[in-house]
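Researcher: Structure prediction, please.
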Amino acid sequence: MISLRNKTKRKKIFLIFYVVFLLLLLAAGLLLSPLFKVKTVEVYGTKEINPDEIKASIEYKNILFITGNGLKNELLKKFPQIAQLDIEKNIPKTTIKITLTERQKAGIICKTEQGENGEEIVKSCFYVDKLGVIFKNAPQTSGSLILLIKDFSLEDFSLGKKIFSEQIMNSIIELRDNIFSQINVRAMWFANFTSPPEEIKVMTSEGWYALFDLNRDIKSQLSILKAALAEKIKDRKKLEYIDLRIENRIYYK
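Model: Predicted structure follows.
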């Protein structure tokens, strides 16, 4: 005979399974119900990003299962061009409003290799923002219209990756904003392969280069460079380099 205690235990187990089944059935109903599908996605703040691509990744999802942080992380991963975004979810209207800010181009960094004959081989280029994040493929370029940084290290780059600290980028941007008024820059690259980089090499269209210390005040180094070009170095045709890495000193050849 089955005892009363065993019957009660079986009833409890059956009741638990029944409740779980109903909950799963309810969740499936909510998930598949067209009543909670996202009907409208509003996107504001785009300039280069196609808002339709953002909408396509969200429309028709169940709004009950969309969380602000989850959607934010998903969009930041899928669209590395996004610097910041705010998400507003309206469940009764099944609408989502997205307001975003795109990353601004601070320069272009190109992965570069040294060929067997000493030639430079550019592998790939990316736009980098003022925070040191690469966020978009860039064309190979030259000249002084935009900051060009050549990277000879073996580090792998991927979109959305932060490759420089803000301090390093601030120094590079400050150098970019001030040096073009003094010399015609062809390209910049790191003179050493430490991480983070400590020195930067600025190649001019005249054939000589200048070495700067990224850990020291860039403006003071630029002031020394300007004074040297105006007072000491009259003929640049035979100039090979100017070294500004030593504080309050300048070396040139």
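Model: The mean pLDDT is 82.
Researcher: Thanks, that helps.
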